[in-house]
Amino acid sequence: MKLSVSFLSSFYSKELTIKKIEETNADYLHVDLMDGGFVPQKNFNINDTLTLLNNHKLPLDIHLMVFDPLIYIQDLATLKPSIITFHLEATKDIVKTISLIKNNNIKVGLAINPDTNLLEIMPYLPLIDLVLVMSVTPGAGGQPFIEASTNRLQELFNYRQDNNLNYLIEVDGGINQDTINKVINADIIVSGSYICKSTNYQEQINKLKNNIQK
Asked: Which among 68, 115, 172, 187 is annotated as catalytic?
């Protein structure tokens, strides 16, 4: 299980938060980008984002909470991210968006909200590298973990095995030392405020890793 750390909710500036994350043994820097349309909050413009992340050290795990993700991909590709994930409901051009991300040699993820029917994502699972299961309502940090997410993770895990597919399973929302063992079927966990609303990021990461029973 790998750890992707989100800097969405922090005591510090974005710049200092990223620096502190990159001083830990986290596997990815999780980048939440919200446009104020797909979710109520807006937290970026593309030029500032490119500047902020230009000298990143950790692999970037970019999560687009935006309508029309196609318009951002070419700019974000200049950062050479490892993963770009967009939401199933965010565009009618799902296959076109998947292709554009892949054509930039970037792994592609599809995110599903807590109320998304899993059947909606099934046709795309052979085409993508990752499914991001939102275990909170997207758009704000610090929300409690939605218990039903555990069953969704298990269903995706079973479907992957039964159909010989290779997508990774990522989970995002409400992950802390108490909920970590509810998501053991995930390959990547995203944790934000649990780590970044503390004074010792590595200590919080250690607590998560020490509580994983897998």
From this structure: 172
Distance CA(194)–CA(6), nearest Å, equals 10
Question: What b/e sequence results for 125-134 when a residue is b if at least 16 CB atoms lie within 10 Å of its CB, and e otherwise?
Answer: beebbbbbbb
* Cα separation, 92 vs 88, whole angstroms: 9
Please indicate whether residue 32 is annotated as part of the active site. yes
Taking the C-alpha atoms of residue 162 and residue 144, their distance in angstroms, rounded to an integer, is 31
Whose structure tokens read 């995203």? 190
Q: Which CATH superfamily is domain 2-210 in?
A: Aldolase class I (3.20.20.70)
Catalytic residue among 27, 32, 61, 129: 32
Cβ atoms < 10 Å from Cβ of 47: 9
Percent of the chain with pLDDT over 90: 90
**Whole-number Å distance between alpha carbons of 37 and 42:** 8
Query: With 90 as the cut, is the pLDDT of residue 127 above it?
Result: yes
Least confident of 10-14, 91-95, 135-139, 177-181: 135-139
